[in-house]
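Bench notes, afternoon.
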Amino acid sequence: MSPERENIEIVGNSLPDYLPPVYKKFFRGLLVGYLRLPSELEVDEAVKEQFAYEPLIPLDTKKQTQLEADMRKQINATFNREVWRDIADEMYLIPQGLNVDEFRWTHSNSSSGYLAIGKGMHDIADRFGLKPLNPQEKEKHLTDPDFYENTPKIKKHDHGGYHEISLVSYAYRNLTDERAASCGKFSKLWQGSYGFREAYFKNLLAKIRNSQSKSPVDSLLGLDIGGGVGLGAYDAEQIDSNLNVTNLTTTTDLGVWPLRGGHRFLQAERLPNEFFEKFDIIFSYNTFKYIRYRGVAMENAIRALKPGGIMSIHYSNDCYREMGQPRGMMIEDIDTQFQRMRNLHDQGVVKFLPVPGRSTDDARYSWENKYGELSGRICLMKMKSMNSPTRI
């Protein structure tokens, strides 16, 4: 194992830039066959680094402490996934078309084939003359989003049979219904779309350019909150070649879609101060239910929006139990933010835009229903600049 440790720097250049150093160090080790969990001190340093920047909205001590605890828990959970032990072991590429009885029910749309791991693979490799991937070959496949699109699962073969393991986060959605229909049917990773029709999304961009007196070829900056591997943001950039989208995520996928706007490893409640009124369009889907302080995150989004920009955010409250939050606290949090948006609307700071089948008033009413389960969408345009925030 010593040579692998010494050669850890031979890989890692293709790992996503947004990953904090502690993650990059860990994944470099896996690629060369070295599994070493970060120490408690290293985790603490990683959390400290993550909270070193000046936030867009200053948080009180209680919220700050809770978010730090959430980040520490997330880091530890990431490193302790059982699959990393297998990744650090030998990995094989089963070429497309190779008739391996043990995998006869599997399929891949990739011309390369699919990846396989596990103790049972050693016997199969001997039978078919397969060689384990070297570190550079591992990195090539594990950091390629196209490979995941066509081969969504890694096959783990034990002596009792095989099962599938996904290395990709749950946030794997196309931006529009049309792109989901054309791309998603080929991938088991597909989870639908952000709920946009392509014409509707293009219309939002046209509204923004019109409100800012820009031409159709003037550039726009976008922010996708909680975009995972960045597929939705990637689709947005393909729809408009003059749109640069930044993907905000705290997932640690090895393969992410290339973006002109790049990826940032950030919590939605702690956007950096540099984001103040930076983005022309901000969108999010199926993310706010996993955010602890939903109201803070939505206020951040409004403050990060340029005058003349549009925010379209899907929200939900169906994960408050998983977040360890009392239902009443969560409802009060988001309801307070709805009232905040209503006040901003009355002050002329924002203007609500129609959403097919929904409106802000309908959303407020739904929060008060007896079941307390809700999903909806807020869409608004920022009409004028805002003042500096106070601590919340």
